[in-house]
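Predict the structure of Sugar ABC transporter substrate-binding protein.
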Amino acid sequence: MQAMKKALTTAAAILMLGSTVACSSGGGSGDNASGSGAQGNQAAGAPKKVELKIFLGGLDRFRDQFDKYFAQFAEKEKKEKNIEVSINSEYPGAENAPQILKTRLATGDVPDIFSIHAVNEIPDYYKAGYLSDLSSQPLASKLSDGIKPIVSIDNKVVAVPMESLEWGYLYNKKIFNDLGLKPPTTFSEMKTVTQKLKDNNVKPFLLSYKEGWIPQLFLSLTIGGLVNSSHKDFVDSMNKGQGSFADIKEMFDIIDLVNANGTDRAFEIGNDDGAAEFASGKAAMWVQGPWDSDSILKINDKLDFGVAPLPLNDDPNATMINVSVSTSLAMASNGKNKEVSQDLLNYILDDQASNELYQSLKFNPVSKTHTFKPYPWVEEASSYVNKGKSYKDPSIPSAVKDEGGKALQAYFSKKMSKEDVIKDLDKTWKDANTAANKK
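Done. Here is the predicted structure for Sugar ABC transporter substrate-binding protein.
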């Protein structure tokens, strides 16, 4: 998916909201208009224009919801501050977005607001000096107690959480109910469920390996479950350069089971096609997260699906839900329009409007002011969390995750053996350690 740009101008806002939105106040950091007196003078005079550049990697499927909300913000900013905002929103694909963003930031072509993965990317972007401290903004005090630490570093809130995740794999409840099946709690039970599905001519697993980030999900699920049960020191030992993926070689058990019992044409199916196939009942399970719920329900709004933890071995204590924050919005530390950027990020968690936004995106509540009822699959995942059957998404170097996706693609196509994958990931982690120590 190539990066696409779309400016929300006055006309766009009129078309979408039926109201007049002008265009915005002075560029610059906002320091010259941050006080109430400056804002009063601004409101009394002619409106100024600000173009806000927003980089939303991998979120093209939510373009309509975001662009509508940005238009609402532009209307609010015009009414309250006489600042006319045109928003240049860009939606590059998930595969290329991280590298595009890093290049932009390094070369000075800086978006005012950009999306990053809270767990994976906040430490690196913060260390590089790209993130603004949002701790003094009203949004910071609204964050739920369990969410706030995940978007904070050095006791500073540096991002607004969008997708808070409780995930494992998706399963088709109708198929399970029709066959009298329940989500398995152990690997042996998963093998039994898989066989029962096959006996009834149902494909157990949907395979969608066209995009490397999808098989890469196995890393978070297997490392997370094992580090929080039988291999508690794995991540620490890898960070010290003393461990090896050979220590958790059992991670391949579930990967092999999925690969051997999946749908055809795995390398022809990416995320969008995968959502359509799952929505159409082509398989009973998909190792994927609820972030695809919107895409799935656009295809089949009657689909009854659930979220369950992925079994890794015969220890039920290792079968847990992964809890994380992925997509979050950060403000560039050297952005040109900080006042307006802050206003937009605060509006993302507006006490009233954000309820509709998050619900339309089918995201979980993240604010203390969110009052909307979570979707059934969210409540199901939360039921495991409430029982203590969850863990925080493990901290794995981004380079390891990226390489993991490629390696598991090669493993599926039999171009790499288990031993090859282990050696590759061990080397990538060691290289990541070296790179981190040089910074």
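The chain has 18 helices and 15 strands.
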